[in-house]
Structure formats: C-alpha cells, structure tokens
Amino acid sequence: MFSKLQWQSDRMLYDGLVFRLEQVRTGDWTGNEFFRFFKRKKIVDKYEEFFQRHPDFHPENIFELGIFDGGSVAFWFELFKPDKHIAIDLLDRKDSTYFENYVTSRGLKEKIKTFWKTDQSDKENLRRIALANFTEPLDLVIDDASHMYEPTRASFEVLFPMLRPGGLYVIEDWAWGHWPAYIAAEHPWSVLESPAKLITKLMDAAGTSISLISNLTITKGFVVAERGDEIIADATSFNIDDYIVRRQDIV
Ligand SMILES: C[S@@+](CC[C@H](N)C(=O)[O-])C[C@H]1O[C@@H](n2cnc3c(N)ncnc32)[C@H](O)[C@@H]1O
Fold first, then answer.
1. Whole-number pLDDT of residue 74
2. Active site residue 147
3. 225 located within any domain
4. The pTM is what?
5. Strand 213-218 and strand 17-21: pairing?
6. I want to staple 145 with a disulfide (CB 3.0 to 4.6 A). Which of 47, 66, 178, 196 is the partner?
7. How would you class 112 by CB atoms within 10 Å of its CB: exposed for 0-12, middle for 13-18, buried for 19 or more?
8. Does some domain include residue 78?
9. Annotated catalytic residue within 54, 58, 85, 147
10. Residues framing ligand 1 (Cβ under 6 A)
11. pLDDT tens readout for residues 44-60
C-alpha cells in the first residue's frame, strides 16, 4: 500500500482519499473534503521501511491513541485493512463529516470506532474500551496522543499486556526532548516531561529479558516494542519497573 500513496507538496492521496499534510500546509484549501493528517512523508517512509522488514505482520485488531481529525485512522486502516480499529482522543469533538462519509460510504461502521473525550491516562477507561471492543488480543497499538511521559506510560501499562506475543506497540514522536526547537525556553513543552524516560525503561526491560519485549526498534520518529510471550498474571497492576533488572551504577 505504501507504494500506492501519492505525495504532493501539501497532501497525500490514496484510493480517492485526500490527506492534507498539516505540518507543511500550503496552498488554498476550502471546503472540508479532506482529512487533516499529522504525519510528514519522512515518517511515513520510515514506517514503510519498518513494515517492509515485517512482511508477515497483518494486524487484525488495532488500538490507536490520538485521532485529531481521523486522518491517521483512515491511513492505518487502509494500510492494514484490520477486522477492528478502535481509536481514542481527549478532544471534545466528534468525527468530521469527511470521516463520517468515509466510514459510511465504505461500509466500515462495524470495523472502525472512535471514542472522543477519552484520556489516555485513564487506565480504567482504556481497559474498559479495549475489553468491550476486542474479543481477541491486540495485534497493534499506535500511540500518537499526548507525547508526554505519564500519560504515555499509563496507556502502555494497560495496552501492552493486551497485545498477543509478536504484537507491536508503537510510540510516535517520543524523541522531542532531543529536538532543539521543542526544548527551547519559549516552547510550551520545554517545561514538560517527554516520553524519553519510558523509552529508556523499554530498553532496560528489553535488555533484562526477551520474554516481555522480544524486540525493540528505536528511530527518531517512533519506537516499536514487540511483545514477547511473558504471561502477565495480573495485567491490571502491570508495572514496567517490575520487569527491569539494573545494576545500580547504570543510569
Ligand atoms: C499529533 S495529534 C494526532 C494526530 C493523528 N494521529 C495523525 O497522525 O493525524 C495528537 C492527538 O492526541 C490527542 N491527545 C493529547 N493528549 C491526549 C490524552 N491525554 N489522551 C488522549 N488523547 C490525547 C490530541 O487531542 C490530538 O488530537
């Protein structure tokens, strides 16, 4: 599918769908016949590179955090054509008309569901949504929501145990704490805590044992943790720290 994406200066096109590239937005846009899409070509190319290395990965159950305008929901859905794609977002809004038309006209009402006013740090609610909507373990989680440490960790601790062995957990834009523009004093995020500390914990857990995290891919735009076959007895109290052994002098 990646090879079928058509890129123009301010949009990505796929199978009759228009994705306006929010970060490089140019040109005159009127009406609302498009998704507002928060990914650049560079990161999509990196995802293509990653999934080309995993040609047998065909997720049927996808949980996505961070909907914004629904562009990434349509993007991932079109890429993988899963049985079920659930997405949540904190925003107090509803699906755009373009998104609604996409879902309805393609007969996807049973497959795609969005949950607005849903905080990724609300562990109980996330667990409830996942249990109510999936009958099988998850295959893929994509977290492109708050990009902050505590909420990202909260979702990870709920949803990572719900992945099947071999399932993938993606955390997008984890690395902003390393990007000069984002840590400059005038940037509103400069005083906030980035998810980088969680990624260090994932690395520590991956180094401790392959049964929790069997593979870890780290790149500037995203991290992918592959779930190992660890049996997590009580998923409701899963804490990544319990899976890390670290000599005290390692920081
Ligand atoms: C970068 S945008 C997502 C973009 C979308 N995935 C895409 O690629 O087009 C981040 C979204 O995360 C949502 N968000 C921020 N904090 C959140 C939280 N604590 N829980 C759930 N969603 C949150 C924001 O409302 C926003 O819509």
1. 98
2. yes
3. yes
4. 0.97
5. unpaired
6. 66
7. buried
8. yes
9. 147
10. 37-39, 65-68, 71-72, 88-91, 119-121, 144-146, 151
11. 999 999 999 999 999 99
